[in-house]
Amino acid sequence: MDLTLTERRSIEGVNSASWNALDHAPSPFLEWGFLRALELSGSVGVAAGWDPHYLLVHGAQGGSPDQRGLLGAVAAYVKDHSYGEYIFDFHWARASTRAGIPYYPKLVIAAPATPATGRRILLHPDLDEAGRDAVAQRLIAGVRELADERDCGSIHWLFVTPDERERLVAADFAARSSYQFHWHNRGYEDFDGFLAELTSRKRKQIRKERRRARAAIDGVRFVPGPELDATQRAALDRFYRRTTNLYGGRQYLRPGFFEALLELAPERVRFLEATRASDLIAGALFFETEHGLYGRYWGCDEEIEFLHFEAAYYAGVERCIERGLPLFEAGAQGEHKLLRGFLPAACHSAHWLRHPGLDRGVREFLREEAVAVAHHIDQLEGYGPYRSEGLGRSPSRETD
């Protein structure tokens, strides 16, 4: 298959329709509008330590590269730090530094500041199996070439899909496993149907939390992105910054990101607002596709007991049931999600380090870590809230 690989330093230089026509699976976080909003706001760029490089593969049937069909792409970032990745390698960097081996710059293939699984090797859905393999191999080789050109000491593919993990392992990357807590729709007719699958104690706890949260406000509702007014738009940014400040987080999303996102990809955005006496007092940002719901940023102007659980979890579960969405990812971390119906789900990444000795050490660590992670996931599943046999295992574990 005759292929041409090119590079763009900004997603602005890539046709948005062609980029979005590639297979992104359920995730919206590598779609053109999201990536461009990151660029326009300065959330990515050289100054942010996320220097973008978009690798594009076109078919070579005459004409300039931009006139040929886009068959595949990768969004890669040269980085001089390890923040905003959520697959942590700080201890690798420290070990490298102690050994006198430069660790940065490194090359990261990920959705910046977004711990959500999605396709990282974007392929055209009309490609046959041989075509998919050829384009994917050209992109993987292009990533290695970019790492050589920029003298990167390592390559990190983060939150890849299980099939991408296998492809990358075959290309001599070392696999790594971690986990999050995801909610899966098992065909529930309504929220009460979901609660019926839980143990009596957990069912009562959730009903109590919802009742108390709802009693303190007038109501909650999902507002589609195109319908957000100036007050709601401002609240998105305010809530994000207040929450990161309160809990010592880093504000990876710079001012202007949410405005740019709502201009470029409003159809993906859902804002869950909580109001009292017509005042907007709390909310959460969600991204929605036909295959999943993704909760990202919660915040409030006033602390209300259990409102976080209602806005960030229960309302999202209810929406998935109402709309028949199969998956709800509510962000990274949080073992408190387990008791609220979210089960541990394996997350995958793949890594390569240039220095042979450091690479060998990391691979040995990853083999040991994989055993510990699998054991911990099994333990967590044993504490799940579901009462029916077989419901204590995440579907993602069963199909990996």
Descriptive report:
This protein has 400 residues and is of the alpha+beta class. Helices cover 37% and strands 24% of the residues. Strands 1, 2, 3, 4, 5, 6, 7, 8, 9, 10, 11, 12 and 13 form a 13-stranded mixed β-sheet that branches. Helix 10 (307-323) links the parallel strand 11 (292-300) and strand 12. Residues 62-67 and 396-400 have low confidence and may be disordered.
The first-to-last residue Cα distance is 30 Å
| Gyration radius, in Å | 22 Å
Approximate strand percentage: 15-25%
Order of helices and strands: EHHEEHEEHEHEHHEHHEEEHEEHH
Number of separate helices: 12
What's the number of extended β-strand segments? 13
Based on helices, strands and strand pairing, what is the structural class?
A: alpha+beta
Helix content: 25-40%
Uncertain segments:
62-67, 396-400
User: Mind summarizing the main beta sheet?
Assistant: 13 strands, mixed
The outline comes out as: globular
Mean pLDDT: 93
Condensed summary:
The protein is of the alpha+beta class.
Key phrases:
400 residues; alpha+beta
Secondary-structure map with pairings?
Blueprint: E1 3-8, H1 16-20, H2 32-40, E2 50-59, E3 70-79, H3 90-98, E4 106-109, E5 122-123, H4 129-149, E6 154-160, H5 162-170, E7 174-184, H6 191-195, H7 200-215, E8 219-224, H8 230-246, H9 257-264, E9 269-276, E10 279-289, E11 292-300, H10 307-323, E12 327-329, E13 343-353, H11 356-381, H12 395-399
Parallel strand pairs: 4-6, 11-12
Antiparallel strand pairs: 1-2, 2-3, 3-4, 3-5, 6-13, 7-12, 7-13, 8-9, 9-10, 10-11
Helix pairs in contact: 2-9, 7-10
